[in-house]
# Entry
Amino acid sequence: MRRDVFQAIADPTRRAILSLLVLQAMTPNAIAEHFSSSRQAVSKHIKMLTECELVKQKQSGREIYYHFNPQKMKEVDKWLEPFRAKWEDRFNQLDHVLKNIKTKKP
Amino acid sequence: MSNKQTTISKDVANKKIIVVREFDAPLEEVWKAWTDSSILDTWWAPKPWSAKTKTMDFREGGRWLYSMVGPDGAESWCRVDFKGIVPNKSFMAEDSFCDENGNITNEIPGMHWQNEFSGTDTGTKVEVEITFDSEADMEKIMEMGFEVGFTAAHGNLDELLKG
# Structure
C-alpha cells in the first residue's frame, strides 16, 4: 500500500486525527476517545500517519504520545508550487496581452 | 511585471484545485483572450513553451486542438472539449492529452475545467476550478510539473500554509 502524505490526508478520520494533534500531543487512548470507531480502527489510522511521518511518536514514561509533524505537511505545498509557477507565468503573459489590446485601441 | 495575486487553493479530499486571478481589463476582453485561439496562442503556454493552435471550434461540443512547443521544438498535444458555454460568464471543458490528430492518450490523466468570469470594480475576476477523476490523477499532473521543469524556488510557502 502507498505511504505518502496524500494518501494520509485523503481519509476524513486521519484528517480529524491530524487536527487534534495540531493542538496538542496525545496518547493513542486519548485520540481514540474522540472517535466512535473501534480503537483498533483508530490505531490503524495512527499507524498509517506515523508511517507517512505526518505524526511522530515520543515515549514519555509509560505512555506513548503522538505529535504532529508540520515539516512533512509542507510537502503538500511543495507539490503545488510548480503548478502555481506555471499559472503565474501564464497569467503574467495574459496581463501583457490585455495591456497591448488596450493600447492598440483608438 | 506581476501586479495581481494568483490565488491557488487545493481541496485534496475533493480532488479539486481552484485558481483565482484578477485582470486589469474589461470582461469582454478577458473572455476573448480565453476563447479566441489567436490570443490564446500568445499567452497560454508558460515559458519557455509556446502554444500553437491546430484547430479551434469554440462552441458547445466543439474542440480546441493545440500543441505545446518546447524550446527544442518538441511538441506535446492537448485537446480541450468544450461543454457548457455561457458567453462572457462561464464555460466548462474537458482537458486531455492527445496526439496530433486529437486521439486521446491515456497515460496522462485528463482534467475537468470550470471557468467563471465576473466583472469587478477594476477589471475582471477569473476563477478556474480544476477537478480530477482520482487523487492519483491529481498527483500525476502535479508531478509532471516537476518533470517538465517548472522550478519555482521563490514560492511563498507560509502564505500557502495559511490557506
